[in-house]
Specification:
Elements (H helix, E strand, L loop, with lengths): L3 H15 L5 E4 H18 L5 H4 L4 H18 L14 H17 L6 H7 L10 H32 L1 H14 L11 H5 L2 H13 L7 E3 L5 E3 L2 E3 L5 E3 L1 H4 L3 H4 L35 H18 E5 L7 E4 L1 E4 L5 E6 L3
Antiparallel strand pairs: 1-9, 2-5, 3-4, 6-9, 7-8
Helix pairs in contact: 1-13, 2-7, 4-7, 5-7, 6-7, 7-10, 7-13
The protein binds protoporphyrin IX containing FE (HEM).
Protoporphyrin IX containing FE (HEM) binds next to helix 7 and helix 13.
């Protein structure tokens, strides 16, 4: 069975075949976003959107993006909760998730996915979730698991097209690991996981493009002393790790430059200033999933295609919970590799 990353490769081949010189200009931001939604759709609900394969749009990603914007607005303007006209959750999204719950229950089919885990918990009277709680949990996974990974991978691709020497080094590592002229050796996660430069590139991408640009917040239940600060109970503390991640005090004069070498084994990293997935007991629950998805996406793209910067792209960013390009669009040129 074709994996979702292989579907990306096939889709890019199809686009290139349409080009007169065997290459194609593709909106890589859009494709990687679609891939991320395809993946979380499978992992969360066992639903195949197949957006990368078919090229069709699905209303769901748009609906998730709308809900993130509205979550940001409701957080900054709590008065909106009291105005019935404003809906915090897009009804389409809510109904989609409730539909998936009902379908799973009535079909009797068991799948190894997040929805199944949540439904199984209904058998445990100590942790039983209501359908409404399952709906909310599922939507968090959907929102937290799609834009985050998709945008991080896309930002890293943008870094790579701006830094051809890093791109060449990563491609060499992939070629050495998957040396198959016919393109038939499967690119597995086990192999990707052990690649020092691939991991370094992704760490550097996350350092420069943290998805939570404004940091994460915590509220102590009791009075608390943090270093030199006495924090009364209920103080809102913002841990500003995004700024720490580009602070020259920790990362040196080239703190704002894309330099994956700093994450290679043997290099000393300021671990106190690097928290892409946050820290403590409430850190990102999906980080292993995210790592797997990002490694496989980059490895498939770069092992099979040459990618090239196209001048004139709008790289301005905006944040609504996660950080994204203002235009949600980024064109690159792709050309199939022949070795
Ligand atoms: C590059 C990708 C990702 C990054 C950088 C990222 C980062 C984060 C961060 C910074 C938090 C906040 C934690 C805190 O409050 O301390 C978080 C929470 C969360 N993430 Fe991720 N995440 C990513 C991918 C994912 C994926 C793929 C999933 C699901 C499969 C996921 C599910 C969640 C959930 C459910 C939470 C809330 C955890 C809680 O409140 O206990 N994330 N993530």
């Amino acid at each position: 069975m074709q994996t979702l990353e292989e579907a990306l490769v096939q889709r890019l081949h199809r686009e290139c075949k349409k080009g007169v010189d065997g290459s194609a200009v593709v909106d890589i931001w859009d494709l990687i976003s679609k891939l991320a939604v395809d993946m979380i759709g499978e992992a969360c609900f066992g639903v195949s959107f197949r957006m990368v394969e078919t090229g069709n749009d699905h209303p769901l990603p748009n609906s998730i993006a709308k809900s993130l914007v509205s979550a940001a607005l409701f957080n900054s303007l709590p008065i909106l909760h009291y105005i019935p006209f404003f809906k915090r959750i897009d009804p389409y999204l809510a109904n989609f998730v409730l539909g998936a719950i009902n379908e799973r229950r009535t079909s009797g089919v068991r799948r190894y996915d997040i929805l199944q885990l949540l439904l199984d918990m209904q058998q445990n009277e100590d942790f039983a979730l209501t359908d409404e709680e399952i709906r909310k949990e599922s939507m968090i996974f959907f929102a937290a698991g799609s834009e985050t990974t998709g945008n991080t991978t896309s930002f890293t691709v943008i870094d790579l097209v701006h830094n051809p020497a890093c791109l060449a080094k990563l491609r060499q590592e992939l070629d050495d690991t998957f040396p198959d002229p016919m393109g038939t050796t499967p690119i597995t996660h086990d192999a990707c996981k052990a690649l020092p430069y691939l991991n370094a590139v992704l760490n550097e991408g996350m350092r420069l493009h943290p998805v939570t640009l404004t940091g994460v917040t915590r509220e102590p239940d009791d009075d608390f002393v943090l270093g030199p600060y006495a924090l009364p109970k209920g103080t809102i503390v913002v841990s500003d790790f995004p700024r720490a991640q580009t602070n020259t005090k920790y990362w040196g004069e080239d703190a704002k430059q894309f330099n994956p070498d700093r994450f290679l084994p043997g290099k000393e990293q300021p671990t106190d200033a690097f928290y892409p997935f946050s820290g403590g007991t409430r850190n990102c629950i999906g980080k292993n999933f995210a790592w797997m998805e990002m490694r496989l996406t980059l490895a498939h793209l770069l092992r099979r295609f040459d990618i090239e910067f196209i001048p004139g792209q709008n790289e301005s960013i905006v944040q609504f919970i996660t950080v994204r390009l203002v235009e949600n669009k980024y064109n690159i040129r792709v050309r199939p590799r022949t070795l």
